Amino acid sequence: MTDPDLRPLAARADLVAGAALLLVALGAFVTGGSLSWGTITQPGPGFFPRALAVLLAVLSLALLTRGLRHPGADLREQWADGEGRRRVLLMTATLLGYVLLVGTAGYLLTTAALFVVMVRWVGGRGWTATLLTGAIGSAGSYLLFGRLLRVELPAGPWLP
After folding, report:
1. How many angstroms separate the CA atoms of 153 and 111, rounded?
2. Cα–Cα distance measured from residue 128 to residue 41, given in angstroms and rounded to the nearest whole number
3. 16-59 pLDDT, tens digit each
4. Which region holds residue 44: left if phi is over 0, alpha if psi is between -120 and 50, else beta?
5. How far apart are CA 50 and CA 47, in angstroms?
6. Contact 92/144 with Cβ under 8 angstroms?
7. CA 155 – CA 116 distance, rounded (Å)
8. In three state form, how does the secondary structure of 92-159 look?
9. Tell me, what DSSP letter sits at residue 81?
10. pTM score, two decimals?
């Protein structure tokens, strides 16, 4: 059950997150405008980015609607426990590091590291689950995107 004192804060978070995500979706859609759509059977390079931008816009509008139905003006700290803030900051830093390193370190290594951080330090799982998820997630996504869908992934030192 939600604490009544936190409801205005949750509504504010929905408004801020919904507006920010809507801006990201609009930016992604406009940026992908120069790429061809292709067709459903032969999607072009702009098909998936723009389709995902539309999906993100719809979901952000749902967040905005929820925030508007329960308006709040309270700007208290979002996470009273430092743990929530720590996980969000760690995941944000990890994603930024991923984007910066994937081109040089390669897809397999950086994706495995991303999974390790998500599972171990954000999700709090043990090392066995962490290493298995990192290896299977990295290799599986490479097989799906790199081999099956033939997406060019950054090779780095680990890919042929």
Report:
1. 11
2. 40
3. 888 888 998 898 888 877 878 887 777 778 787 888 889 999 99
4. beta
5. 6
6. no
7. 20
8. HHHHHHHHHHHHHHCHHHHHHHHHHHHHHHHCCCCHHHHHHHHHHHHHHHHHHHHHHCCCCCCCCCCC
9. S
10. 0.56
